[in-house]
Amino acid sequence: MAPQQFSAAILPADRAALHEAQRQGEARLRAVFATMTEGLIVNDAEGRVVEANEAACRILGVPRDQVLGRTGDDAQWPAWRADGSPWHPDDFPGVTAQRTGLPQREQVMRLGGADPVGGPERWISVNALPLAKDDPALPGGVVVSFIDITTRVHLAAQNAKHLQEIVDLYDLAPCGYHALGPDGVYLRINATELSWLGCQRDEVVGRCRPSDFLDERGREMFRTQLPRILAGESLHNVPITLYGRHGQRREVLLNATPVFDAQRRVVMTRSVMHDVTELHQLRQQHQASQAHGAELTALLAERTEMLAVLAHEVRQPLHNALAVLQGARRVDAGAPAGGLGAPGGDALRRTTDMLRVVIDSVDNTLAVAELLARSGPIERGDTELQALLGLAIADLPSDERQRVQIRRDTQARSASMDMSLMRLALRNLLVNALAYSPPGSPVTVTLGDCDDPLALLIDVQDQGPGIAPELHGRLFQRGASGRRTQRGAGHGLGLYIVHRVMALHRGSVQVLATGPAGTTLRLQLNQDDD
After folding, report:
1. Where is the protein localized (predicted)?
2. Helices (H), 231-341
3. How far, in Å, CA of 27 to CA of 30, rounded?
4. pTM (2 decimals)?
């Protein structure tokens, strides 16, 4: 049936019903069109605005009668108001593109002076859709839809501002922040910590681990602690030493926590580092000051004690010498004129020996005071061993000198040493050996050497009963004194002086043997400059 025949076949009543249905459909469409919150403008094929809903006019701030009938004239299309275009000048190219009839993705445009009294700048989201030109039932043209997204744009701007503030707080915080993946590699790191490391972000993120910037102790801590964090534990104020690329050392306190996903699996770790380098340095300085203060206090106490010892050691022997001299005067007063009585000669000998004891005590006490105050290195020189032995033996009481026997197991004739200090040390060893040996028994001094290390060895052997058990382990400490000898109880200075003198020479003193058959002490005087 031809179209004309079909049209003629429609009864008048049916035609009226179709017209009514069409009218109602158009009415519903216009109602929807009018009540839409999205702005719609319809252009015909010639670019003339044939429809514009209320939402479009409200969004644009332009009366409807100023929109309808507008054409695609470039000079007239944007100029909907006498005081200027609603579109921002920078967005004109976008508006022109929307009128080409080609499909366009969403564009965001600015709308300036949107209401008749002039309002703030607004933002519009615009979409253009061409009507099908190949459908004879459609006239062709373009449908432009747009919505006011000013609030959304403002919220996005505020969110961007807040996000930037958060980024600044993260990046510029006065502490280091970083996040690690399960493999321990950096996922994120802030600018502060990057400055500590002396690196750029792309040099660290995805490439390095914190262990790359730690010392051996820190790397071991990282190796053992990372699995614990990945297992769900946390670290609190762990001290580590951080080394930057250029060698800068920084003391930090590390705090680390795990980050879980919805299934309570650890997906990464978050860490914060606090720089405590200055605090660490201040603490070290404080500790050093405390140690120095304690050292000065101990030194003052030792010097005070030395003065007390000096007073005792000098006063008592001088009183004894005075008593002996007074006795000698009484003996000499009763002797024949011109005679040298034996009792008087013995008194003079005992007086001489007592003065020798006084001299030894003064030497030892002053030596301790000097050794305690010494801070610099000793002055060593090449010293004849025979001269050293002769001076040390000459310092002994006259009736004790013949008890000292010398043996040589070395061809060395000289050695590098501080002559005065080594004389003092050797004399104290000999005095100690003579005092703890039976009267008249020999004391043997043996000279030897060794090659590794290169050193002179001096062994002093007595015939005494051995070192008392209570002195083992503290024999060379100041104040350690053995059982009373014929010279009286000492103050434990002799062997302490020997120990200090050998330490200053980078040598040592040690007990080679001790027991009922006697004791042998060895001085090892190192000759190697290294």
Report:
1. Membrane
2. 277-334
3. 5
4. 0.43
